[in-house]
Amino acid sequence: MSSKQMKIVPGIILILRKWMRLASEEKSLMAEIVFFLMLSKFMMKCLPFKVIAHILKEKKRYRKKAISSEAFLDQLPKSMEKAVWGISFFKKCLTQALAAKMMLNRRGIESVVYFGVFRDENNHFQAHAWITSGTLLIPNRPCVDQFRVIKRF
Q: Are 17 and 9 in contact (CB under 8 A)?
């Protein structure tokens, strides 16, 4: 096993232990989050960004919001943070934003993915991707106001 794989295994074991202690509704949401995080990571590794951008732009006919959509929007950021906590390759903002976009599209909830940049105090570019839907913000990074939006989907 490589050193990278050695770092992943303890994180997965820790997540599985925590997952076993969750209520059944939380287990299904966490499983869905992990599935879409893995799918988005796979897409970013295997597909050109042009294809991913097309997926982000895709305009679907949104169903009427389900009654539970507000509860889902409240629960998603917390659950996403729990899901990425032990596995470092899920902590990338683009992975989380893409996974959240697919989950929200699946439920017929409108959302917008933003790509932004800013220069830090050392004059280096910093980039960030995030998704909003109403008051939802994923990944939950309060400083998104300092980023200049260069593209939105």
A: no
Distance CA 98, CA 37 (A): 8
Are the C-beta atoms of 34 and 83 separated by less than 8 Å?
A: yes
Strand boundaries in 2-147, DSSP class E: 112-119, 125-133, 136-138
Sheet holding 148-152, edge to edge: 136-138, 125-133, 112-119, 148-152
Predicted confidence (pLDDT) per residue in 4-46, tens digit? 555 666 767 776 787 788 888 888 888 899 899 999 999 999 9
> What type of residue is 30?
M
In angstroms, rounded to a whole number, what is the distance separating the alpha carbons of residues 96 and 78?
12
Q: Can you tell me the distance from the alpha carbon of 67 to that of 73, in angstroms, rounded to the nearest whole number?
A: 11
Is residue 130 within 8 Å of residue 110, measured between CB atoms?
no
- Give, in order, the Cα–Cα distances in Å from 140 to each of 74, 129, 136: 12, 11, 8
pLDDT at 115 over 60: yes
Output DSSP code: residue 134. Answer: T
